[in-house]
Amino acid sequence: MKKIAVFTSGGDAPGMNACIRAIVRGAAYHGVEVYGIVRGYNGMIKGDIIPLNSQSVSNIIQRGGTILKSARSKEFMTSEGRQKAYDQLKEKGIEGLVAIGGNGTFTGAEIFFNEFKIPTVGAPGTIDNDLYGTDYTIGFDTAVNTALDAIDKIRDTADSHDRVFFIEVMGRDSGYIAVQCGIAGGAEALMIPENLTPVDDIVSILNNGFAKQKSSSIVIVAEGDEEGNAQIVAKKIKEKMGNMIDIRVTTLGHIQRGGIPTAYDRILASRLGLGALEGLLRGEKNVMAGVINNQLVYTPFHDTITKKKPVSEDLIRMVDILST
Amino acid sequence: MKKIAVFTSGGDAPGMNACIRAIVRGAAYHGVEVYGIVRGYNGMIKGDIIPLNSQSVSNIIQRGGTILKSARSKEFMTSEGRQKAYDQLKEKGIEGLVAIGGNGTFTGAEIFFNEFKIPTVGAPGTIDNDLYGTDYTIGFDTAVNTALDAIDKIRDTADSHDRVFFIEVMGRDSGYIAVQCGIAGGAEALMIPENLTPVDDIVSILNNGFAKQKSSSIVIVAEGDEEGNAQIVAKKIKEKMGNMIDIRVTTLGHIQRGGIPTAYDRILASRLGLGALEGLLRGEKNVMAGVINNQLVYTPFHDTITKKKPVSEDLIRMVDILST
Amino acid sequence: MKKIAVFTSGGDAPGMNACIRAIVRGAAYHGVEVYGIVRGYNGMIKGDIIPLNSQSVSNIIQRGGTILKSARSKEFMTSEGRQKAYDQLKEKGIEGLVAIGGNGTFTGAEIFFNEFKIPTVGAPGTIDNDLYGTDYTIGFDTAVNTALDAIDKIRDTADSHDRVFFIEVMGRDSGYIAVQCGIAGGAEALMIPENLTPVDDIVSILNNGFAKQKSSSIVIVAEGDEEGNAQIVAKKIKEKMGNMIDIRVTTLGHIQRGGIPTAYDRILASRLGLGALEGLLRGEKNVMAGVINNQLVYTPFHDTITKKKPVSEDLIRMVDILST
Amino acid sequence: MKKIAVFTSGGDAPGMNACIRAIVRGAAYHGVEVYGIVRGYNGMIKGDIIPLNSQSVSNIIQRGGTILKSARSKEFMTSEGRQKAYDQLKEKGIEGLVAIGGNGTFTGAEIFFNEFKIPTVGAPGTIDNDLYGTDYTIGFDTAVNTALDAIDKIRDTADSHDRVFFIEVMGRDSGYIAVQCGIAGGAEALMIPENLTPVDDIVSILNNGFAKQKSSSIVIVAEGDEEGNAQIVAKKIKEKMGNMIDIRVTTLGHIQRGGIPTAYDRILASRLGLGALEGLLRGEKNVMAGVINNQLVYTPFHDTITKKKPVSEDLIRMVDILST
């Protein structure tokens, strides 16, 4: 394999640039020509494909976002779109792909591989950590630390005003960000999609806190919680508890997607980028590179998008014990 | 004056603890006994008043929130409530007060002074910077930097996805936070209460940007804007521009109130705390300490709450020029 | 076991407070009385032992340092000293200990256990990550991120002035912090104790960089490197390269020990604190709790202090490839 | 004036990029062509001069360092060098200059102006805040906050170990950074060049602290202090106090020069950049733009480099009172 291309797709995640850098520098090291596809599958269809070299990725390891940009592509969901994409790659002589992204990215990559057989290896880039086949995804550690920084700030106010704050964090269908924020943020309670917590349980926890003179409390709500998002949950609680408590709601929102990547994310991204590249060069295809128990592993795209990675029961238990 | 008390009231602001520390240490330096009233006017009514000394305020200069806590007090709005408060102070032998807070705090302080003549000097503590009588208030610089940090993160995503972000910042009726965030955050446009910006102007600015291949844009919206908050404004823009743009909205919310105070806020808070204390000891009363053009000044409470401090036209003009 | 005590010893590390909190809350959860020993073995000898409860550890999860303080104790190295310490524990009815610290702490704990048989379980708290029996130690992730933040800042200057910076990071005899900083900081070269890098190799790397028009470079030097610390190494390089390069040296120093713990460190500290406590209650003794491959494990003190945990060769290789 | 150029010179400072951006965008707004000179006077001599437009300065407002790079130029100190520089400017048709830098930059600018009469206006860019003609310089606020963040971290360790830390901050011949860090960092003592503090006074302050059971202390030492730098001062203190205290020394070093600029620095830099540009276009020459008491002012280069801006006595007094 002498010519490959890399692209980012789906929601951006901090560390994607560190991953691109590792792929480009790794390709240079192995004497392989490397191209960047701009705006994911969209750019593939339009042929927006640029040469990259070691210099192109200087001084990007610490930047959030992705220098290759990202976009949704409806056209790639059609077979005409994918044919165009393939034609562009063929014209440029691209023999292999590294795809950085999440669920949607790999769903597209699998279909494309089945149709055109261009070897593709994925690197898991999403803040949600909802991909099977890796302990952690690129961007997750940064997102958790960003959310945590916000929670620390909010606790100052909660504490000064004896308030209860419901803080909604991201994570789509997964409670990973919420659980980590719950433990690290010293939350009194946690509401995540994996584990239905009835509103009544939250009421009990808050009441127990009052009984112990705990004047302020923080409840972390994952955006995908079955009881509804933070605003809705807070409303239900208010209906049940009335004037006893002074409730505020904050939805952390898009700040969780950006920012300077943490050391952990830069190292993980570098390792996964290099792992994806070297896997591709060794003949891996239709798989995602991941790190499980500190070992580099490759998991079929199909499994990464269909299998569910459970949130550790141990961690959920810790929130209960530590808010004692 | 041999015995004074300090309290915080209204919304908490980063630097309030640095201010409390300066008052307590300053009192120790001047040989004056100092008490802390817990939860503002509420604690005054209940007699929740504790002795403070130099040790009590060790290691708090860097903490957000307020160690004396804050609360709304409906009872203090009644003359019975204020009588109780006065009785408590008299019983404890408190001869003077330092009040740290904003509009509401000083409104209460003025009424109380007029009724009971206990000398009171204020220190302006609010992130909104909406008080006449000081260039800046305690907490403003930290709030702006917190919002800016969030804006920097969001720009990573805006840029990666070619999106337009409407970001709502705090400030109540004042556009101070928004203006500073607009300049420092490199925003394309600004919507503040002081300066009606029609939605059509925003549409023009965004269209001009597209014409210049500017793929992402940030619009800062002050929470008090006449055109409605960020969600409403964004909806109006979307109706006018349709599918041309990919809009996202983020309301920064309560993170702007907390956090480690910046150097500027710690120094300003220390200076204002000491200034309020030393003013009180020298005979000032019914006034707020402020810093205007680097000079310590005292302004009657009445003026601080009734006069309007305008946002600098120069700064508003800068947003236009710098987004060229 | 109905009454236990916890203490911190050796250099402080961010996350120690989160660990103390987990032990205290865990003890409350399991109905066990818990005490805190102030200033490590020193406080044990002097009987400086205080009761702790859930409230005592409120709002400390985010604080650097250790609320139980830490100190060196020469007296504990004598058998008279240890006898006094034992007498104090006996008098208070302490039946088990949780020790948070590093090498020196566990060396003392092992001797003490062998003499007096008080069950002791350790939690690894040191920024150096030099303990066998756990993948990571409490404080390591924060120290790496602190060093990385400094490296990012220094790169701004290195880049603006076309300079080469030698940056010395902590880690005692271990290159863990240096390796992670090397990868995450995008360093051109790395000098660590585990892996002798001759000064001539650094000269080659820098010369290669110049040949590729790389105008600035960063070399990370672990404090324990055999070629000497950063100042000495830089001097040797300067002698060999002369006026070709503009070299600066920075020793990051004590900032690496403090600061708000990262999410990773708070969660690891909580998990290890709870793991140490629950191990102790289940009958573990003379062992350190650790996390290897996401599993809680217990390793004899003797092994933790005598066996060497190697730095991953994969990581060292990554620095070479990524600086291509 | 239809064609101007901008350059940065001397030590880099956070906010220089925001200043460049304001000059370039301001020039676009006023319909003036603008060039960037790379590596200061060096690039002027070599003709390393590039066209800039609004797009060139996108997304740099938040970056530390300077995109135009900086360098010392020995050749510019010779009249042959300056003649070459002038020839280059003439050839390119440059009619005016904006110089961003400090003392050395403006010394060069004044000589150059006197010889060749090319109108030049300066913007004060240096972390040291040692320029007469402006209350604050670009980069100062960021440097203080960076140093303060380090001091906060070190206090965690100082407090945990009952230690005295001597922390050396930058500032060349000026104590500005030190004074602000002293107040905001809650230091026990301060040693600055403007105000000789004998070592014996520091000994007294530390002894008084011990008498009040203050177990840890922080002394801020400006790099230019007459009693010698932090290492030397600490040694003298140790000789006088012996084993009574556990002293550590940290020199913060180059981290103070880099990093993401604060809101204050971005706004000040934008204002001064625009002010310098618009001054130049209106006919100002041989002056530096500054902000004094919130007003834009222009001060002759000669005064900015020869007159001394004193550190406020009020601030120095505050360190004493607040460490009570």
TrEMBL record, chains A, B, C, D:
EC number: 2.7.1.11
InterPro entries membership: ATP_PFK, ATP_PFK_prok-type, PFKA_ATP_prok, Phosphofructokinase_CS, Phosphofructokinase_dom, PKF_sf
Subcellular location(s) of the protein: Cytoplasm
Assembly information from the UniProt record: Homotetramer.
Organism encoding this protein: Aquirufa avitistagni
Annotated protein name in UniProt: ATP-dependent 6-phosphofructokinase
Active-site residues, as the UniProt record annotates them: D128 (proton acceptor)
Membership in a protein family: Belongs to the phosphofructokinase type A (PFKA) family. ATP-dependent PFK group I subfamily. Prokaryotic clade 'B1' sub-subfamily.
PROSITE patterns per record: PHOSPHOFRUCTOKINASE
Any Pfam family hit: PFK
Catalytic activity: beta-D-fructose 6-phosphate + ATP = beta-D-fructose 1,6-bisphosphate + ADP + H(+)
Pathway: Carbohydrate degradation; glycolysis; D-glyceraldehyde 3-phosphate and glycerone phosphate from D-glucose: step 3/4
Keywords from the UniProt entry: Allosteric enzyme, ATP-binding, Cytoplasm, Glycolysis, Kinase, Magnesium, Metal-binding, Nucleotide-binding, Transferase
Residues binding ADP: R21, A22, I23, V24, R25, R155, G186, A187, E188, K212, K214, S215, S216
Gene: pfkA
Binding, substrate: T126, I127, D128, R163, M170, G171, R172, E223, R248, H254, I255, Q256, R257
Entry keyword annotation includes Magnesium: yes
Binding site for ATP: G11, R72, S73, G102, N103, G104, T105
Domain Phosphofructokinase: start-end pairs: 3-278
Residues engaged in binding Mg(2+): N103
UniProt cofactor(s): Mg(2+)
Major enzyme class: transferase
Activity regulation, short description: Allosterically activated by ADP and other diphosphonucleosides, and allosterically inhibited by phosphoenolpyruvate.
UniProt GO MF annotations: 6-phosphofructokinase activity
Stored SUPFAM superfamilies: Phosphofructokinase
